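Please check this today:
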Amino acid sequence: MSFVFHKSLILGFLACLLLASPASWADTEVPYGKGLFWKIEKDGRKPSYLLGTMHVSDKRVLKMKDEVKPYLTKAKILYKEIANTYREYREYINMRIRDDNRTLDQDLSEDDFKKAIETVKLIDIEEDDFKTFELWFVYEILDGAPWYRGKDKDPFEEDDEPVLDTQLGMMAFDHDVKVQALEKTRERAMLLWDRPREMYLEAIERALKNNEIIKNIAERRELQIQMYLNRDTQKMYNDLEDRLRDAPREIYDIEKVAMLDKRNLNMVNGMTKGLIKGNSFTAVGALHLPGDEGILSILVSRGYTVSRMDCGEGEKSKYCPNQDM
């Protein structure tokens, strides 16, 4: 297998970013809830740019490369979430494997284990591998299963291409743009790692009680892609809040506070040097952009001006300065 972070390498860590759920929060207004591509300006410096990505290689999503190419290829530096290196890949593999001499079939009831295996086989994970995974990783996979394309191919099958983020990194390399990671695999994993075993077992059992976990995986994944194509980060954000609304506080603290809010702040701190110098480009998961604790809100609180680069024709918003208000 070639070393690219396509679907088999992003399971678990990214499951919390774009998950389908009922749209009961769909109309709740979210700051910066529309748009994926933003210009960042301050004090007459050369503008920098921020792109919200989707960690898939769906051909429709990959068209975003063409939209941002004129800006990325002329940037001084590209910031992205994780570096595509063998070191990071080895870390990823090592941290997801259990080291307590137990396997998942020993932790779950026979019925729950059977349902878990039926689910992960739909997203191309083999039983022998799955039952050796750390409990936090099992939870992230099962909780995010609807987001992943299964073996039922669709007209937009991915053909194992690298995901959008990786392809942006490749584009930067081809144009001599420096690439720098905002996080390390271990740093991200530690947000999930040091938690009680019982908490994850309960979370796994709750996920498996969802009778829809196996049904319509492809359809639910398509809903997420459509949200991205519609540049509707408000719906992405509200869906996450809705999914976590009835979750235990410990799970909310992981999925929303740790994996989203704290990482948003760390990402802004990591990209600040490039913003000060100007002409930087940052590409991170789209769900990191909106919200009161999102990257765009943090940037504005630090004195930056943000404006959308992807406003639709006739779209009226204070973030679309070229449109008639």
